[in-house]
Amino acid sequence: VAECGVFRIPYMLGDSARSIPVSAIIGTAIGLGGGFGTYWASQNMSDTKWLAFFLANLTGWLSVGLFTGGCHEFEEVWGMTPYVWKLGGSFWSHKKFPICLET
Q1: Separation in Å, CA 15 to CA 7, 28, 39, 86
Q2: Residues near 19 by Cβ (< 8 Å), separated by ≥ 6?
Q3: How far apart are CA 67 and CA 73, in angstroms?
Q4: Which of 29, 38, 51, 84 has the fewest CB neighbours in a 10 Å radius?
């Protein structure tokens, strides 16, 4: 079963073997929908410069996410990085909700 949240929903809802094919169907539908959307946009847009910019930006964000996820996995295997810097105060705690302003 995939580790993405959307793909895990059918697995969490039931403990049968049907949850794995449902995840595969959802993933296939999302992939086909994205591919069809890209094809449709490239055929119907007069200026595809913005489509190319959007797809390059999307690919860049996905690659950064995969890279940071891979770095995190290496840190779990080889040990965590020692402190590079330390910020004082409980506001910056990684155990709290990120960027949470308390009143």
Answers
A1: 14, 21, 37, 44
A2: 1, 10, 11, 13
A3: 10
A4: 84
Q: Dig out the tokens for 48 from the structure.
A: 């595809």
Residue keyed to tokens 């086909």? 32
Q: How far apart are CA 27 and CA 4, in angstroms?
A: 10
Q: What is the pLDDT of residues 21-34, one digit of tens each?
A: 676 788 889 899 99
Cα 12 to Cα 16: distance, rounded to the nearest angstrom: 10
Among the residues of the chain, which ranges form H helices? 5-13, 19-44, 49-78
Q: How far apart are CA 27 and CA 30, in angstroms?
A: 5
Cα angle vertex 31, ends 26, 32, to 5°? 100
pTM over 0.70, yes/no: no
**Angle at 94 (CA atoms; ends 91, 100), nearest 5 degrees:** 45
